[in-house]
Write a structure and sequence with these properties.
Blueprint lengths: L6 E7 L3 H12 L6 E8 L5 H11 L3 E6 L4 H11 L4 E4 L5 E2 L3 H11 L5 E4 L1 E5 L8 E2 L13 H7 L10 E4 H7 L9 H11 L4 E4 L6 E5 L8 H25 L6 H25 L3 H15 L2 H20 L1
Parallel strand pairs: 1-2, 1-4, 2-3, 6-10, 7-11
Antiparallel strand pairs: 4-9, 5-11, 6-9, 7-8
């Protein structure tokens, strides 16, 4: 590279002061040096400010911003607006990056101008494990694909297939798509869906050295099933609105068969999550209504019924101990 482009590392933080140093140290450990790291403290009541100020005072590449609590996506948006980099790297305050992440992926994107967004694999570790043993993390069921258009959009329908910290993207994406929506959990899924609908190209980078190191602990939501289902319902409704708006313009020249499939899949998955949420919350009338709709739209009645019974059991177990 003739000159090293600036990378903006975006870190929102809410009461993750006990993890924040690890995230910031992973920025310092990068073999690529031309970066800025913007930490947005989203109204934390712990020692997040002490940690953020410490790093800002020790290295001018760190920038610390405080805001009143407004949610994860609002903190990301604040950092995005303050960023100056040609490339944007997301990172949560409780996670870390392997030390070749910036170096290898900047080189990849500088050499391949058709790639707009690159995402890496994930290694997970347990916070309570003193050895921090790293294992491949399988948070998602979809294939890890590269490309754009129909194949990419279809892969995003069930849910996201990478975490925000996996992603490095060109600034032009932010300039075209804008910021994330109000924080309701899964806001990154809706954001990447919009990016896909704008015709940007995604690339899966499976190399060692660029992976996200994802921490599992008692405060993160990766494994809180019912909370995530409720968030998915809210976000899927938003994604359906986004989908309908894009389909009116159809700038990507999507086929009519694909458009019909897309709308049907969204409806089917929304109904399935509504059935699960209602049954778990013991709203049995709504739950049975959505369950019957799920058996019809999914074409898999036995799967729908067994899933409904499983979440009914979890709800009763929680209620009666």
């Amino acid at each position: 590279m003739a000159s090293a482009p600036l990378v903006s590392i975006i870190i929102p933080c809410f009461n993750y002061g006990k993890f924040l140093s690890d995230a910031l140290d992973s920025a310092l450990a990068q073999t690529y040096s031309n970066w800025e790291c913007i930490v947005v403290n989203d109204g934390s009541t712990d020692n997040s400010e002490v940690i953020g100020r410490k790093y800002e005072n020790s290295d001018s590449r760190f920038k610390y911003i405080y805001q009143e609590n407004a949610g994860h996506s609002a903190a990301r948006n604040t950092a995005l607006k303050a960023s100056k980099g040609k490339y944007i790297q997301f990172l949560d305050a409780d996670d870390m990056l392997e030390n070749e992440k910036l170096n290898l992926q900047v080189a990849l994107m500088e050499e391949n101008t058709a790639i707009d967004l690159v995402y890496s694999d994930i290694l997970g570790f347990l916070d309570k494990d003193p050895t921090r043993k790293l294992t491949p993390a399988n948070f998602f069921t979809q294939p890890l694909i590269s490309g754009k258009g129909e194949a990419l959009i279809a892969n995003l329908i069930p849910t996201n297939f990478f975490l925000p910290g996996c992603v490095m993207m060109r600034r032009i994406i932010y300039e075209k798509v804008g910021t994330m929506k109000a924080s309701y959990g899964f806001e990154d899924w809706e954001y990447f869906f919009r990016i896909a609908f704008e015709g940007f190209s995604f690339y899966h980078d499976p190399r060692e050295g660029v992976r996200l190191l994802s921490r599992t602990h008692g405060n993160n939501t990766t494994h809180k099933g019912m909370e995530m289902i409720k968030s998915k319902i809210v976000v899927r409704k938003e994604i359906i609105k986004v989908t309908n708006n894009y389909l009116k313009e159809n700038k990507l020249n999507l086929s009519q068969d694909f458009i019909q499939k897309l709308q049907k899949e969204h409806k089917k998955l929304l109904i399935a999550d509504q059935a699960v949420s209602s049954l778990y919350a013991k709203r049995y009338f709504n739950g049975i209504k959505f369950l019957l709709l799920d058996t019809y739209y999914s074409g898999k009645p036995f799967h729908a019924l067994s899933n409904g019974l499983r979440w009914t059991y979890y709800g009763l177990k929680k209620a009666f101990g």
